[in-house]
């Protein structure tokens, strides 16, 4: 079946979901970069993922596995997530795949939109209101830094920017770089962190990206090159900032019965827990640029997550962390509990954030290298962690990875923190 034109397919053709998502990503340039994730479970299991963030329409490995989960008309609800675009884009994309009359929601929650869709899909499954939910995220971005689109109304980040400006001033640099750059400046003043610590984070992530065939950029840079690249704001240079990206991602959730019905135990990855937090009074009341940038949102979500599970931060083996800027990765180490407050510099210097250290952070290359198509990023992170847990990450595989953590944040704001593990380890071992 070809869905490159304005054609609709008959659900009775019983396409597999692999074919459905392959087709849905072909209809327009919005979907040229592909990041797909299939998530299943009442306990929430991920069962298959493929990813590409580069400018091409096919990938070398993404369809190597013939996934035959279920016909498209078994999907009960769809959650579409994007930030830049007109209303009902999800319908426009998926009507070309099949028109079953299913409910389709369109979600926008800034850079955490992909994880927000996953969060909602998980709740729908757990409530019993659907057996199978598709979360579809995509973004086609303009070149250059992010800027407001609606100048005739209040910007949702006005209060964040005003709070930052009252503490640190305001200039003509891109606003996101000021928000996160000033968080780094505060950390440096408070704890003695150096610009080299920020550069080391970017060095690590660019180095990791070399082994990720689905990364938008796959170049390694020296620490000197990173520090010498054009300065964007404060200590942040160009090679410490994520690029604008086009991309897409998808995740399918279903009840635990669905996993057993389709014999997916051998590849199922369980969502152990998932928490979302929004801004607290401290964001605006404590004159802290770190808190304006979401430190307390992340800390709150992480603490709730660990308190509801049997795990602690030190149990985590691999992390996909929202490194929109190296500054955010630095402060988030502490907010997630990966190291003590004020100890991020030591954590970096000791190599505890990469292979051979305590935990591997952003083996994919992170947003800095992999790319950051806003509506898809959360689902792309999810895909990488599933590959890691299944031992399918090739040269970037984290040895012995059994517990994975995902961190996805959007200013304005929402932070989503998630834990994953293999759902049925014995079944996986038999594959």
TrEMBL record:
A GO CC term assigned to this protein in UniProt: peroxisome
Matching Pfam families: Thiolase_C_1 (PF22691), Thiolase_N (PF00108)
Gene Ontology BP, a term: lipid transport
Keywords associated with the record: Lipid transport, Lipid-binding, Peroxisome, Transferase, Transport
Entry EC no(s): 2.3.1.176
Location in or out of the cell: Peroxisome
Every Thiolase N-terminal domain range: 92-257
Main localization category: other
Residue span, Thiolase C-terminal domain: 295-415
GO molecular function (one): acyltransferase activity, transferring groups other than amino-acyl groups
Domain of life: Eukaryota
Matching InterPro entries: Thiolase-like, Thiolase_acyl_enz_int_AS, Thiolase_C_2, Thiolase_CS, Thiolase_N
Protein name: propanoyl-CoA C-acyltransferase
Lineage: Eukaryota, Metazoa, Ecdysozoa, Arthropoda, Hexapoda
